[in-house]
Structure formats: structure tokens, C-alpha cells
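Same chain as my last thread, 321 residues:
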Amino acid sequence: MDLGDTRRRYLGGQRHSAIDLEEPYRHVFEYTRYFHLPYLFAGDPDEIDRVLFVGGGGFTGPRRFVHEYKNVTVDVAEIDPEVIAAATEYFGVEESPRLNIYNRGGRQFLRETNRTYDLVVLDAYQRDKVPFELTTREFMSLASSRLDEDGILFANVISAASGPASQFYRAEYRTMSRVCPQVYGFPTVGGGVVQNIEIVATNNDTRISEAELLARNERRDIGIDLRAEVWTYAPPPPTDDVPVLRDDRAPVDSLLDPMVGQRYVIQESNGTESTTGEESVDGDDSRDRGDSGDGDDRRTESQAIDPAAVGSARSAVEAAT
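reply #2:
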């Protein structure tokens, strides 16, 4: 569906991906800007030259990486052939020597490949449909085993940052912490609303502070100003009351239950003016999320979590376990 210069694709009645027809490499959904955060965590960002995306969506991240970073080759593992076909037909996605698309589940791809990666991006979670087999400790261990020594694991999850609806985020954080020495959380909106939360996991024993990330953002030319994104750096969440997700016990259904009926808040950049959807979310008052540092203005929109979809996801999980 086209709205002005923005083309959106809906999957199962849910907004799935979007592209700016005039500026096809621009990040329409704000959370996709966070995909570049690993370039601040890396000791040397120029050493990131092989990237795997698990989940294609509209291929915004893969296309931008190939466009922005001339030394990078991107592999994409996307299980749904319809997603690939739609991205090809409506978003102009084309394979190239530096962009390889595999119609394969992420776990299968990681088991079968003999490649290693500097960065693995997990972008296969929808707000009410979570493939549990991509959430467990065993899967994170598999993904970590395909990372180079200084490789980085990045996950885009949908949950709340705090409160009852935060259980999935906190369980995933705890699970990734069992595999990687350092894990970081970046809630894109903040507070107890359901939102995109970006998790960065590294094999570096030394924790990197928000101040150091801001300093690196100033020093490094990575093609995008991430000052506003670094500002969302959050302390480790409490995890004592949530499980480590395992292949033989991944209660994703119960972790999603508190999100049923809540609003999903997603920020969108239109590049011209700042507008606000029907429900706005207040973040940290000391941080101006409207100034991205690169001229993009933002707006906040919200959507309801569909209880029926959560039920379908639960049934899939139960069948798989």
C-alpha cells in the first residue's frame, strides 16, 4: 500500500515493512537505524565485512548495509518465499555478488553454513508471532558459533522494557547472557509500552559505557549518526523471575500473554516534518528523540496486539515442542 512516497507491506493484517520510494535506502521505521549500532561496539568497524540477517522483511537493513558499506557482503536467510517474492516485486530487492538471499530458516541456515560472520542480525520476530526455535539458548549458541572471534549478535525483539509486558524481552536478555559475556538493551521508545527493543551481545569481556559509545559515534564515520539511538542505552533489566529459554522449555506463549490487548508503539521517520500518531509515548525528558542528528523527523504510531494471533503463535510453539 502506498501512502505518499512511502510503500508499506502488510502481512497477516499487520504492518510488516516499508520503503521510501524516493529515497529507497532511508530507514522508514526508526528501529532499523539501530542495526548500525554494532559499528560502534566493534573494535574496528572496518573489520565488519560479512553480515548475516536472519529474517528479510522488506530488506531495509540488508539493502542499506550493501549501499553504505562497500566492503560488506550480506547474506539473508528468509524462510517465507512470499516475503522474498514481495520484496523483489514491490521493494525492488535484487540479489548481487554482495547480497545473497537464501529461502531457508535461520536455524537451518546456521547449521548448514561453513561461513563465519562479523555480525548476525536476528530480525525474524513479529510482535505476536515469535518463532521459539530462534529464541533459545541452543540457538544463540549456534549463532555465536558462527561468529568470528570479535563477532556481534544483534536481536530485534518486540516487548515492553519494563512492567508485566516485559517478560519476553527480559527472558531473551537472560538467555543471550548465558551465551555472550556482555549484553546490552536499547528500548526504542522506553517505558512499559510494547515496542521494538534492540539487544546487542558481544564476546568482549569489557563492558562498553554509553559515554564511550557516544564518543565513538563522534569519532567514527559509519554513514549514520546514532547519537539518539545510543541515548536509549538501558541498564540490565531484572531477570530473576524469567526463564532461560531452552529447546526443551521455551514458554514463549506465557511470556507473550501480558502483551495481549496492549498497544504496540513504533516510531517512524518521514524526513520532512514531525508528527505524532493517536497515542504518544513519553521517554526520558532529558533526551530529545526528535533530533536524530541527520535531519530525519520522527512520529510515533501505535497498533493493538491481536489476541488471536498470539493464540496462533502459541499453537505453533506447542506443536513444535
